[in-house]
Each structure stands twice: as structure tokens, then as C-alpha cells.
Amino acid sequence: MAGAPARWDLEADVVSIGSGLGGLCAAIGAHDLGASCVVLEKAGKLGGLSGFGGGEVFVPANDAMKALGLEDTLEEGRRYYEFIAAGYASEPHQKKLLDTMHEAVRYFGAKAGLRWKACQGLPDYYYPLAPGSKASGRYLSVELFDGKSLGEWQHRTWLTPIMPPGALHEEMYAWGGLAKVTTWDYELLGKRIAEDLRSFGPGMMAAFVKAAVIDREIPAFVETPVRALVADASGAVIGVRAERGGRDFFVRARKGVVLAVGGYDHNKEMACMFEEMPDWNGVFPAYLDGDHLVMGPELGAAIASVPPTNLALFYGYQIPGEEVEGRPFWRSSWEGGVPHAIWVNKTGERFCDESFYKEYQPKLRLWDGKKQEQPNTDVFLIFDGNYRERYPLGSFMPGQELPEGMVIVANTPRELAQRLEIDPDRFEKTLARFNANAEQGEDPDFGRGSMPWAIRLVGDLDYKNPLLGPLNKPPYHAVRLRPVSVGINSHGLKWDLDARVLHVRGHPIPGLYAVGNSAALLDIGGGYQSGTSNSRAITWGWVAGRHAASRA
Amino acid sequence: MPEAEYSTTARLPVPVIWSYVREMDNWARFLRGYQSHEKHGERDSLWVLKGDVGMVTRTVKFRVHVDEWGEPSRVCFTLKGVNEPMEGGGEFRLEPWTDASAAATPVPKPELGWFARLVRWLYRLFAGRTERADAGSGADVSRLTFSLRVKPGGPMGPMVDALMKPLMLPVAEELADRIMAELEKQHAKQTT
Question: B45 to chain A nearest CA, in Å?
Fold first, then answer.
């Protein structure tokens, strides 16, 4: 905690720390009630994690799906959220989230120019297993956004290497899906890149940046990390000590400070301790340092958590020489779920449905209590010659030489197993069983191919079995995989129904709010569904900003 | 196809510039993203560069073949990606740049779109590009022109093309300017 300075460098009513979805929604919400706002961003670009991701906003019974004639009700949405929570959500938090998210999303559509559209054909994760689940329409995304309208911010907003630039959901599916990138319309994508037409997370966040920083002229400072909160003698937060150009930069917040700095993927100590994993690798740029879990507790803020077991953890790999923002880039891997590919652990056996991360994630964390080890944290992606003829590895297309030092290649499964130092007999048996079932379009061991979401997102939509195909054509390939995270963490600050951060004694800390991934997942509970991070960031950001603006 | 051509002048004789440009060891480090190069005889070499494709920086290997050693005024080369589906080529051109030649051949102003202009500006701002004054024209002035073209192949070619296009001119400018700046520095030392 920092003491109040003799002189503030800048004053505003509400200060958003972080320029992702939560921070900008708070700033817009506060501004529109007459408050003056400032956004402070650690990175050199605006948009935060939200600008780096898929940009889906999960809203049951949303207006856009209704306009398409897709049926849904609030009650069905509630039942689905309840299923995801698995008993770990705070009922009042979840209720308020569901009661408020439509109003918040409509607000940003009407007042901030967000052009929402429903993603057609993308099912809920757990459709049709979960009560209240739907086959299509609950994910909102934005129409293509013209990056040129950002003026001086055009190249200081995040683009993303993890989603195809300029493509829309329905186009991806029409072109054959993520696995069939060989048949996509790259002429069209090239034109959109040249015109800077943005989609996915970059498109959504560009729209929010325009609404906040350009249309409302809310000052935003990049490369300005906040180092500490400033509180008065009563413990109320009255500002922040940031760092700008190597010097202290004190910003007074007359009404509130909103912590919206994301999670802690890049704070190895926090990640390993809170996520209960020996190894933790972040897909997103290295700004998710857990600042909220340092600055908040300095003022007595409580930390809350949900079980880390079933949030959003994947397997991934690095391509030698590939970097983003000057650091090696972790790609999350979906290749294991594509036909002619599997994952095996060091015993040479499959252990999960490779196409559906909600199924494999708890198995990734499995403990072997006798050996005192986690057998599935170090696994191999295996694929054959059929795969290489049809599908890419990362951005390496069929026929393209694979990177040195990344891929192990052998002419037979046995030789491959020996090179991987796994039991060749067991590996051959694993392949034989998988192949025999795959030929029949079945996976009786793990049910691969049974989840519509996985088929739609991971599968080859032009193939007879979009997620299944035997590995029977040499050469055989292996890539070592490691766990990778996308910033959805199990621990965050504890907060109340106005998004105010709670003290360990139970009372709100005056003037301090936490939203987005900085706020513990009290509203979501023990599970995760793509797009819920964004819908809760929009909802609680808006709630926090409006509440702060209304403070006396 | 992404391509760029850039010319700059210096108050140096053509043979001085030629002898420097002819030996790639002299200027290889001035190429943006340079990691290493290996010479394989008089005409062939293998280059390793780091290059940006959108958000991602990739390490790319190129085989370069000199098609023409046109001493003392022209080197033409072709290039082919080893680990990426790319091919292209380029040339260095050297010529005396007298007032008469300047008058006869106005220096072409590249037609740049807004995006290319912005990227060039950002490169200049952040990449530590060598700032030097063009020598104009005159009896003791030479002009160096560097041109480069790269065509990404494979299914993603049109998309990679769009991502690379704005980066080409800054690369050409930077190499030519840094070569000339180094030669001017060496020449200034010799004359003092």
C-alpha cells in the first residue's frame, strides 16, 4: 500500500486498472453516469486478455439469437449455469449475473456501438448432456470492426495469433472447421487484413476501445503499470501509485478504483501454488502477473477460490523460433482431437477424449498416489501420414517441412515408441485398439466424437467421422505437450454483489472493486464455459463502474 | 506479391560501395531480424532471419542464389524459403548520381497505403532506424537501390501476403540506409 502523495499527477472519479473488457466496461459505465474516468494499462496496447482471445460472450436467451428464431429462455439459461457451477457458485452472485447480463449487453449495444451477432451452429460445451443446454446461438460475437476507425490507437490495440484474423465463426465452419485450414478462403482473409477488418477478440475489444477512448475521450495510459493502491487512514482506497516512464505516477480516484488486471498465469509462484500444478505456461502475453492478489491483500482484501480442476487448462507446445511480444509463444493444441491423431502419456496409453477439453482437463491433473506423480502432465501428440496429408500442425500446412527439434518422426509405431522411451508393446496395443474402433467411427473408451461442441470446433467437418480416423500410415510423428493456460484462474479477490472487494473481516473495502478474471469465480463456480469470462467481465464491469460513479 | 524498392545516395564513389556490398559478411547484420548466414561458394548462401507474420515472429531460413554479379553496378539474387513456403528475389543497383542523372530520372516516390505509411513510421520511431541525410546528387555522389520481393506460397499465401506487405519497405529502407551510414562513417574516419 502506498501513502498519499503531496501532489497527485492526475485526478479522476474512477480509475480502471487494466484495459481489458472489465476495465473498459467499468470506465464506460461510470462515464455515462457523469463520472470522470482514467484507464491505466501495463502493456503497450489496449484490450487486455479479451483482445487476445476468441471474443465470444456467452449469454443465454440473448436478443440476437431470438432474432434468428433460435429458442431459449432465461430459466433454461439458469439451469445450464447451475450445471456448470457444480455446486461451487455463490447463489446470489450467480443470480445477479444472470439477472443483469442482458441489460449490460444491451446497454453496450445501444450506447457503445457494439454490433452483437449470435454465432450460429456453435453448441454449448455440454449440449446435449446438460439441463438447459442449447445447440446454437448463445455465443455472441461482434460484426467485423474497422480497425482504421481507432485512429492513433489502431496499432496500439491487441491483435491475436490464436484466432484467424478477419474470419467469422460461421465462415470457419462453412470452410470446413479449424482442422481444415487448407480449404479456407485466404484471399478473403488477406483482403480483410489489408483493410484491417477485425473479428473475434480483437474486433470486440477494438469496438470497446473506440467507445471508451475515442468516442467518450476517456484518457488511457499504456505502459503504465499500477504498483500499489493508495488508501486513507480509514482504509478507503483513494487512488493508485503507478509507474510511468520510470517514475511514480500518482492518480487520485475520488470515487473508486477498479481492479481489472486479469489473472496470474505469468506469476509462476502464484500459478503453481493456487492451481496446484508443478508447471504452468500461459498462452497470452506476459502481463498476467497477479497484481490484484498483491495489491488487494495489502489492504486486507480477502481471496476466494473455486476448485481449479475444471476451468480452462489445455495442452500446448512451442514451435522453435516462434515468438509473440519477444517471448516464446505457447500454442494451445487441438490437434489431438482431429482424425488420425491421439495423445498418449508415458505409459503409452490414451487417457481421455482428446477433442473435448472439459473431459481431459481433470485427467491432466490426475495424481498417481502410489508413484506420487502426475502421469498426464507430460504427454505426446501422436499423428500419422494420413494426418500430415490433410491437416496442419500449428501453422505448418500439409507438405510443409516441420520445425527441427519439435517433431519426432519414425517409420513404425514401435520405432516411434522407442524414440519416445515409452513401452512399445503397450503403445502398439493402444494404436491397434484405437484404430479398430476409429474405423467403426467409435471410441468406446473415452467417447470421442460424442460432443457436438467438439465436433464443431475441433473436427474436420468434411470427414466421415469428424473426430476419428485410424493412425495407420507412416511416417508416425510425435510432439511433446505441456499444460497451457488461457488466463482463467481459480483464485481471485472476494467481492460482493456491487463488485466491491471484500475485506478479510467481511466488509467491503470502500472505493475498491474487482471485475473480470481478477474477481474470484463466485458467480460461475466450479466449471467453465467459453464466453462466460467475457459475459461476467461485461456485466460486473458495468455494475462496478455504475456503483463507483454513484458513490458520494 | 509484397515488394519494395528503396534508393538512397551518398557522397561516395561507386567502387567503394560495390566492394562493401559485394561481401555479404559486411552488411548481413544490417538486415532486419538477422540471425545468421552461411556462404556456400561464390553464389549461394543460407540465411536465418526472424520475421514478423502478423503478431507472431517466426524464424525463417532462406536459400539465396546470386543470379548475376554485374560488377560494379548490379547484383541480382533469388531466394527460396527452406522451412516456409516463400520465394522471391531482389537486387542491389549502384550508379553514379550526378545532377544530370537525377534530373533525368526523378527519384521514384513509393506509393504507400495508409497502413504501410504507418508501419514505416512506427519502424522509424521504435526500431532505431539509422537516420541519415540523403546526399542528393552531384559529381561525387552514388546511388544505391535495393529492391526485394517475396511471394508467400501455400494455401495461406494470400493471407501471409497481406501480413507481410507493410513490412517490406521498412526492411528495404533500413538495409540500404544502414549500409550507406556505415560506409559514410568509415569514409569519414579515413578522411580525418
Answer: 19
